[in-house]
Structures are given as structure tokens and as C-alpha cells.
Write a structure and sequence with these properties.
Length: about 120
């Protein structure tokens, strides 16, 4: 399983742009499927949250190799999808994520630094 990911969080559609938001969402799902088929990402998961009064309506988690994810994140095609998303949904954000075995590595690093500071 991949140790790195991209967390793409999003909120509700911008009022008046609901149709464009759905179209863009479907295009992103197709794009992610293609990335997986081509071996550019290991997998992806799409999550829609139930209404809860917060700003996060859902997220997509891309899992894969750190270098490949960095290349994807800076690609023109990814940036086009993000730009369209910024115009059609609220609270869109992309954040790098640590997963799997990387969690243990970061926890050890934290504990090591904590010891040095105390």
C-alpha cells in the first residue's frame, strides 16, 4: 500500500454553478480512473460526507508514489481540474498526506525531536 497521498477536499457547489460542479466532478472521477489504469496512482477513494454544518462536503484521496503524485499535482491537466473546481465549488483544497508505513516514520521522528527538546 502507498505511503503517500493527495487529499483533495471540497465543499458545496457554488450557487448557480451546480451543473458545472457536477460535470467537473464526473470529469475528475474519469481522470482519476485513467491515472490508476495508467499506473500513475495506486488507487483513489471518493467520499461524500453527510450534511454536518461544516465546510467539508467530501474529499478524494489519491494514493501513490510520492514522486508521481508530485508530478501529477503540478501537471497542467491536474491544474485545469483544480482551477475549474475553484470556480464551481466552495472550500476546495489540495493537501499532501502521509499514509501507511509513513505514519510510523513520522511518529518516530516526532518522538526523536521531542526527546531532543526536553
Amino acid at each position: 500500500m502507498a505511503d503517500f497521498g493527495l487529499f483533495i477536499g471540497f465543499g458545496a457547489p457554488v450557487r448557480g454553478r451546480e451543473r458545472q460542479a457536477i460535470e467537473g466532478f464526473n470529469e475528475v472521477l474519469e481522470y482519476n480512473s485513467r491515472l490508476q489504469q495508467e499506473g500513475e496512482i495506486e488507487s483513489f477513494e471518493t467520499v461524500l460526507l453527510e450534511p454536518h454544518g461544516g465546510e467539508l462536503g467530501g474529499f478524494i484521496l489519491l494514493r501513490g508514489d510520492q514522486d508521481k503524485l508530485a508530478r501529477i499535482r503540478t501537471s497542467d491537466e491536474f491544474q485545469r481540474h483544480i482551477t475549474r473546481g475553484l470556480l464551481t465549488v466552495e472550500n476546495l483544497g489540495v493537501v499532501g498526506a502521509s499514509l501507511g508505513g509513513r505514519i510510523a516514520t513520522l511518529t518516530s521522528l516526532f518522538a526523536e525531536q521531542l526527546e531532543q527538546l526536553t
